[in-house]
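Let's do one together. I've listed all components of the complex below, 305 residues spread over two lines.
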Amino acid sequence: MSARRRRWISALVVAAVGAALASAVVASSFDDGSSLTAAIDEAPLVRVADIEADEGAPALGVYTQLTDTGHVCVWEAVSAASRQRGGGCNTVDDPLNGQPVSFTLSYDGGPAPVDVRSATVFGLALSEVAGVRILMSDGSWRAVKLKKARVGADEFKAFGYRFRKSDLKSGNGPVAVVAFAASGAEIGRQTTGIG
Amino acid sequence: MRRFAIAVAVLASLLISSTALAAYQYAPPRQWSPGASAGSTYSPNWLANYFMTYGSGYDKTVTFIRNTNYGWYNTKRGTADYLETYAPFDGTYKAHCVAHAWFWGSCNVR
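Okay, and this is what the predicted structure of the assembly comes out as:
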């Protein structure tokens, strides 16, 4: 191979690699959540509430996590060590999305509500919330136990609730999670989008 | 010149592979509308599926869909900025995400 041809090939390789490098840098500059997922893998989990076992579904814990990326995460899992967990994270300056109560709805089966085999709801409420109840599609209510939970310097109340099989079988789904003050007045309501 | 080209190629391949390993973005950042959805390819090796939004309080769902019965598994629905679920141990699944509001965000699986 001539020296001139080698120079051309080398220049082409450098140009192609440069283009690949530039595209990789641009792609990595978009926030795809990978920095948060790495932080989630590192930060310790604290168990703040329990979800009872029911007819083959295992007992679960509700866990909070404060990451070094400045996020408060709330997970549902069998144990703190389990990577089999689901939930969500918000920034530490707005951990409840500006609401008195924030939750994740978790279920297996579906997407049609009648095909759902098991379902839970878990989340956090502001410390001044005295009670949280779930409004069902038949108009009945389900009471939820609240437990004090500290995340970093902030106080919250944590909760986890497993829906009854009888509710699921009859298509009685959760419509909204409602927060109440000590006076009994409703102070916040967040719909589930189903039920 | 050749050594320089090889060094640059190695560096580039490391950078590209580390970017690719972080997550597979099956729905790149875009504007979502209520009812809009996206899905990854089917694989027995997915670990977790997450929907990341820019801004908070937007209703969305992440789940895994099995290739045999097309049922939904480990579904999570909520308004957290970052909503994640995990893949079941057995079987072949695709990651699936659904928007229930207008927002900007992306869906990723790893």
